[in-house]
């Protein structure tokens, strides 16, 4: 998202909006500087030109994502060429199953990435904790919990995450919530051509991204195109593989979802729009809104934080917005959403 769109705008589109206008005077302190996340003891850097002669534990910058209904993709980076294997099981230290995958790498100007490994494991049991290690010789154990097979299910939602102190605050609040899956709709690392920032971002989010599936999409900060020299989305496509093939897409930039468009008209059968772009990136907040405020724009506020979408049953879901006020999560707004497919007036 562009800087000026980094705000929370919940445009609840329905006939009875009338003249309902809500706006908060909350003022957020200035943006914070980009963080450097140091390597842990015995960890190895991920950029080839910076390799050091130190022990390497194999499993570095781990993140996971769902593949279909009962599988999970495990992604990680190593210095050395290894067999891309993941061993896993439902009890700590006991890995009764294993799967192998693929390895790739990429170059960006003078940067060469480490070996990026992707392994899809499964079938997996819903709502179950799995323990896993990456690589044939790794002893560093990770764990994740699969999503439930029945409702309710809770999504944590972050936009424009970046890698600042505010990002850390947002991630801390997310980790304290009992969510099943994280959605990040664009603008992940704010690397902006500096490829080592992708490595730094991976280390920053690993504690969360290795324990719950992260489903992400690209934003303008992932483009990183250099005419003639570099194609767009090179780092994003190499590092964050989404289930595009399983959903019939030809590109990692798109995997399936369905939506409806109602030409900007207030209609009780129209969709609910939630624009979120304030996870903590270095660009700071945009508090200059279009005036006058549109009648269908019910709530808008400039603050850092994250959203939670809890699908309770087939007809109702609860959206809540949690801002990072004074490093304590504050629920600044909430709304119940109704599945329009159950409304006879909204049948198409």
UniProtKB/TrEMBL annotation:
Q: Name the coenzymes or cofactors required.
A: Zn(2+); Fe cation
Q: Which Gene3D superfamilies match?
A: 3.60.21.10, Purple acid phosphatase-like, N-terminal
Query: Ranges for the Calcineurin-like phosphoesterase domain?
Result: 153-258
InterPro entries the record matches = Calcineurin-like_PHP (IPR004843), Metallo-depent_PP-like (IPR029052), MPP_PAP (IPR041792), PAPs-like (IPR039331), PAPs_C (IPR025733), PAPs_N (IPR015914), Purple_acid_Pase-like_N (IPR008963)
Q: Which Pfam families match?
A: Metallophos, Metallophos_C, Pur_ac_phosph_N
Kindly give the PANTHER family that the UniProt entry links to this protein: ACID PHOSPHATASE RELATED (PTHR22953), PURPLE ACID PHOSPHATASE (PTHR22953:SF153)
EC code: 3.1.3.2
Give start and end of each Purple acid phosphatase N-terminal domain. 62-146
The protein in question is named Purple acid phosphatase
User: Purple acid phosphatase C-terminal domain spans which residues?
Assistant: 270-327
Q: Give the UniProt family note.
A: Belongs to the metallophosphoesterase superfamily. Purple acid phosphatase family.
């Amino acid at each position: 998202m562009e800087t000026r769109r980094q705000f929370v705008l919940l445009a609840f589109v329905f006939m009875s909006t009338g003249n309902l206008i809500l706006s908060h005077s909350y003022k957020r302190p200035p943006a914070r500087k980009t963080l450097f996340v140091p390597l842990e003891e015995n960890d190895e850097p991920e950029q080839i030109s910076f390799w050091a002669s130190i022990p390497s534990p194999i499993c570095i910058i781990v993140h996971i994502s769902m593949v279909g209904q009962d599988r999970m993709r495990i992604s990680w980076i190593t210095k050395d060429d290894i067999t891309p294997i993941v061993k896993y099981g439902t009890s700590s230290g006991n890995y009764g199953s294993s799967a192998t995958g693929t390895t790739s790498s990429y170059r960006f100007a003078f940067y060469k990435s480490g070996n990026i490994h992707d392994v899809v494991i499964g079938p997996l049991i819903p709502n179950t904790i799995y323990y896993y290690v990456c690589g044939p010789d790794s002893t560093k154990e990770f764990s994740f919990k699969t999503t439930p097979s029945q409702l309710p299910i809770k999504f944590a939602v972050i936009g424009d995450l970046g890698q600042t102190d505010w990002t850390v605050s947002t991630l801390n609040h997310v980790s304290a919530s009992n969510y099943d899956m994280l959605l990040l709709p664009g603008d992940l690392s704010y690397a902006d051509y500096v490829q080592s920032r992708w490595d730094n971002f991976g280390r920053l989010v690993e504690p969360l991204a290795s324990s719950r599936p992260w489903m992400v999409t690209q934003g303008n900060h992932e483009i990183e195109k250099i005419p003639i020299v570099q194609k767009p989305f090179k780092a994003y496509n190499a590092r964050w593989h989404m289930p595009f093939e399983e959903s019939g897409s030809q590109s990692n930039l798109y995997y399936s979802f369905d939506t409806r468009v109602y030409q900007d008209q207030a209609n009780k059968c129209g969709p609910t729009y939630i624009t979120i772009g304030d996870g903590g990136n270095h660009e700071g907040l945009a508090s200059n809104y279009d005036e006058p405020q549109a009648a269908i724009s019910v709530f808008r506020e400039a603050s850092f934080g994250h959203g939670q979408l809890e699908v309770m049953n087939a007809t109702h879901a609860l959206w809540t917005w949690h801002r990072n006020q004074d490093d304590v999560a504050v629920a600044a707004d909430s709304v119940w959403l109704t599945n329009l497919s159950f409304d006879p007036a909204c049948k198409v």
